[in-house]
TrEMBL record:
This is 39S ribosomal protein L1, mitochondrial-like. SUPFAM superfamilies: Ribosomal protein L1 (SSF56808). Gene3D superfamilies: 3.30.190.20, 3.40.50.790. It comes from the Eukaryota. It comes from Branchiostoma belcheri (Amphioxus). Transmembrane segments: none annotated. Keywords: Ribonucleoprotein, Ribosomal protein.
Length: 322
């Protein structure tokens, strides 16, 4: 008669003693579903949770094809209200529920209501064959601004461009005569914007400015000065980085602040939607979704995994054949 396997981590039964539980034998163990666990499963049904994202409705065919437990986990769903999260799969929840849980956790930790709220996005940077999306830096104008306007330096020589830059709120406007002052650290600014005709004259400042050096990929070089000044003075900066570990090849991440805890759920949702769409613009939609996972947390609170599918941009449909 079959007896329960002595290895508690493997829910199987063996006709004879299993090699993983006892000494080696020449008998091959027959692995079957654990009788004890099957009986317990029939007696105690899963509870109905208040969080609908924990429940996973599957058909009978999918239930038969699915293994008894996920890899490196105890079961697919917990059978109690109090359990260790690390023993069960981490299912994403709607963003509204994540924000509510985050506010409750902040109250228990006696956090101030104006602490920063940050999101972490996991990226799929794979493209054709061995190509992938390179690390990038960008800025986006959030619907609800969270930072003070930054100091912008504009390189321009045309009188019309100089007047336009001053009207938009640029702190420093000038031509190549500002290069020597920048090398001597006489000017203080946060970002630098330039017109395309002066990019060759600014190559001397490449080592000095480093990430502040104007580039077309960062939307800091162009003819629309009002747009660039408004984007970098009131916009939120984000940066995408990639992993160097071989197991994380083809993946990247973005960590960026999107608001404060005292903002409403609608304001935080609109900022997150705008940020995710701005990040997804760096990869063509034909290669699949760029953002694969999203976490939201505040200072002193745990991270909450939210559903990113409602915020991903959709590929435009051709109405020619309709």
């Amino acid at each position: 008669m079959a007896a329960p396997c002595r290895n508690a981590r493997a829910l199987v039964t063996c006709v004879l003693r299993c090699s993983s539980c006892h000494v080696r034998t020449h008998w091959k163990p027959v692995r079957q579903p654990c009788i004890f666990s099957m009986q317990q499963r029939m007696k105690t049904s899963y509870r109905t949770y208040s969080t609908p994202s924990i429940q996973q409705v599957l058909t009978d065919a999918e239930e038969e094809q699915r293994p008894l437990k996920p890899p490196n986990r105890v079961a697919w769903h917990p059978t109690d209200d109090v359990y260790h999260i690390r023993y069960y799969p981490w299912y994403p929840s709607p963003l509204e529920e994540c924000l509510q849980q985050m506010r409750k956790a902040a109250e228990l930790e006696f956090r101030q209501p104006d602490i920063w709220v940050q999101i972490s996005l996991e990226l799929d940077t794979k493209l054709q064959k061995k190509k992938k999306v390179e690390p990038f830096i960008g800025s986006v104008h959030l619907p609800h601004t969270i930072t003070e306007p930054k100091k912008i330096l504009v390189f321009a020589t045309d009188p019309d461009d100089i007047e336009e830059a001053k009207k938009c709120g640029a702190h420093i406007v000038g031509g190549p005569e500002l290069i020597q002052e920048i090398l001597q650290d006489k000017l203080e600014f946060d970002y630098c914007v330039s017109v395309p005709s002066l990019t060759q004259d600014l190559q001397v400042l490449k080592k000095k400015l480093q990430k502040k050096f104007p580039k077309k990929k960062r939307n800091t070089v162009g003819h629309d000065i009002s747009y660039m000044v408004d984007l970098w003075s009131r916009g939120q900066k984000y940066a995408a980085l990639t992993y160097n570990h071989p197991k994380q090849e083809g993946k990247g991440h973005v960590n960026v602040i999107i608001g404060r805890l005292d903002m409403t759920d609608e304001q935080l949702t609109e900022n997150i939607d705008c940020m995710i769409k701005a990040v997804c613009s760096h990869k063509p939609l034909s290669f699949g979704p760029f953002v694969t996972r999203g976490l939201v947390h505040a200072k002193g609170t745990p991270s909450y995994k939210f559903q990113v599918e409602p915020f991903l941009p959709e590929e435009p449909k051709d109405d020619m054949f309709e």
